[in-house]
Amino acid sequence: MKDLMGMMKQAQALQQRVTEMQAEMDNLTVEGLSGGGMVKLTLTAKGALKSLSIDPSLMKDGEGEILEDLIVAAHADARLKADRVAEEKMKAVAGGLPLPPGLKLF
Predict the structure, then answer these.
(1) Which of 43, 53, 65, 88 has the fewest CB atoms within 10 Å, measured from its CB?
(2) Which residue(s) pair with 34 in the sheet?
(3) 78: exposed, middle or buried (C-beta count within 10 Å: 0-12, 13-18, 19+)?
């Protein structure tokens, strides 16, 4: 029974750390770039778009498709960075506890 109580305490502590990490992820930001920095966007580590910056030289008639592609590429860059940050934070929170692969706690 003591082992069960210890496990329950560990689970509660993990839940608290995950809750704290989720709040932190709302405030952590990552920047995605494409076109040599001509398109920049900022996401929270949870993926919410916070800002978008486009070099004025990209806003020409007939360049819409290129601009769209650059925005998508910048978003993909930022999402990859956000996923890495989240993974690192989760490893720190889990503190060596074995978590199933692909488990997303936020």
Answers:
(1) 65
(2) 39
(3) buried
CATH number, residue 49: 3.30.1310.10
Tell me which residue of 42, 30, 24 sits closest to 90, measured CA to CA.
Answer: 24
pTM of the model: 0.71
Helix (H/G/I), strand (E/B), else coil: 62:
coil
Tell me which of 62 and 94 has the higher pLDDT: 62
99 vs 74: which has the higher pLDDT: 74
The two counts, helices (H) then strands (E), for the chain are 2, 3
Are the CB atoms for 86 and 44 separated by under 8 Å?
no
- Whether 104 is covered by a domain: the verdict is no
| Whole-number Cα distances in Å, 103 to 10, 37, 58, 86 | 18, 33, 39, 11
**pLDDT digit string (tens) for 35-63?**
999 999 999 988 899 999 999 999 888 88
* Residue 35 belongs to a domain: yes
